[in-house]
Amino acid sequence: MYRHKMYLKITLLAALLSLVGYANAQPYNNDIDAIIGVSVPGIFHGGIGLHYMPSTRLGVSFGSDFKNDENGRLYELALVHSIYFGKPDRHIRKKLWSLNTGISFQVEQSVHEKSTAGYFDLFFVRKIPITGKIFIQPELGASYFLFEHLVDEAEIISKGERTRIIPKIGISMVFKI
């Protein structure tokens, strides 16, 4: 019962943050970002982001650790919603700080087991302009563990236990398309 209440609270928080973005809606010429980067726990990722309003972006990324050792290979799919705030930069006329919420799903598969896990992400980003169309984007925040399902080689399904809150640290390069 407690777990269902926690999921409801997280869903309501994500919806509230999305509504804040819609409240500031103005006619806007959509633009797209291409993103490449790395984040904890060593996931290299690439993705795209769509600025659908002046102060909001919706993004999707796919990542992997590109290792194939005894722990297997790790893949991640993330959906992120960004709300930009602060004063616009006087040179590029865009806000550089953002509050980001998202959901990420990780699949780790080895010879012995397969693990599927989900996280709710909450983090801050500060874009650092290199040129008018290229930015470096450090990230800092936390991820809240939602679920994990483990399936071993004998097809036995169990629930995994992980630390509830883990740090989310990363850096990306953003290219305006």
List low-confidence stretches: none
User: What's the helix count?
Assistant: 1
What best-fitting shape do the alpha-carbon axes yield?
globular
- The assigned CATH architecture is Beta Barrel
CATH topology: Porin
Which range best describes the helical content: under 10%, 10-25%, 25-40%, 40-55%, 55-70% or over 70%? 10-25%
Task: Explain briefly what this protein structure is.
With 177 residues, the chain is mainly beta. 12% of the residues lie in helices and 62% in strands.
Descriptive notes:
An 8-stranded antiparallel β-barrel has the order 1-2-3-4-5-6-8-10. The chain has one helix at about 1-25, and strands at about 30-40, 45-55, 55-65, 75-90, 95-110, 115-125, 130, 135-150, 155-160, 165-175. The chain is built from 1 helix and 10 strands. It has a single domain (about 1-175), classed as Porin (Beta Barrel). The model has no long low-confidence stretch (mean pLDDT about 80). The chain is mainly beta. The longest helix is centred in the first third of the chain and has 22 residues, at about 1-25. Helices cover about 10% and strands about 60% of the residues. Strand 1 and strand 2 (about 45-55) form a beta hairpin.
